[in-house]
Amino acid sequence: MTGTNPVKIGWIGTGRMGFALATRLLAAGEDVTVYNRTRSKAEPLATLGAKIVDSPADLSNCEVVFVMVSAPQDLEDVMVGDDGLLTVDGKVPRIIIDSSTVSADASARIREFASTKGSQFLAAPVSGNPAVIAAGKLTVAVSGPRAIFEEVEPLLKLFGHRVTWVGEGEVARLVKIAHNILLGVVIQALAEITVLAERGGVSRQAFLEFLNDSVMGSTFTRYKSPALVNLDFTPTFTMPLLSKDFDLGLAAAHEFSVPMPIAAATAQIISSAMGAGYTTEDFAILILEQARRAGVTLESENAKVLSGLEVPQNG
Q1: Check: CATH 1.10.1040.10 for 174-294?
Q2: Which of 17, 78, 180, 229 is most buried, with most CB under 10 Å away?
Q3: CATH number of 8-169
Q4: Could you report the per-residue pLDDT of 47-88, keeping only the tens digit for each?
């Protein structure tokens, strides 16, 4: 689905992630038309070759439309609300690929409605942030009809490192929610052990350098190390978004009768941090809450720490 005659692609939602992913499609030479609720946030993509439209309905003549919005209500609005993508009689995209983080129920409702209109629907949540996207290390979980997945797989591979078909229906939603629960549990555990090491006299830089070079190091621990060492909490993923995912995950755990005591405890810690006012910063700010509870005052170490996501410079 890529090549000398690119398909006509629509894109809905140009927040931090949507903007970065649409940029990759444009850089690959794809024909992309973009809608965002706040038009000004989409307009910079025009300098990269995108066309900008005023409503989701204006994308109904595209062959493939990607969607990346924040919440179930947003998804419903852009799909079936006023001037929604699926509201134009007799004219709908052949394939819709939704990368929003929403519940399986919300996704299933849109999938069913899209089917009645003649559109195939894939759930395709992603793992990463704009820095991960820029480094080409994004991963994508996809569920829906296998044949449709195989058709659009070349487009999805433009996003980054790995694309995995995980099954039919809405199972990709559960994969993403499970992934984000692990994200929260790991950052809290990382905050706890880093504060412990500092309380014992070890700098955060030295401790995390050791950890990252050990078998316990990972892409995640490396790319969060600069934030933990230098207390730079420029947001990549905020606490309210993480809290929403824990709510979805714990609801799924209740539905499937799966006890999740560590996840439940972490959800309470996240809620407490939000109550303390940490709502706009990156979720790595959990280290400040952990330090407060331990009676430790943290200061930036102002150290040069590599994230592992540095984009190689040509030449």
Answers
A1: yes
A2: 78
A3: 3.40.50.720
A4: 999 999 999 999 999 999 999 998 889 999 999 999 999 999
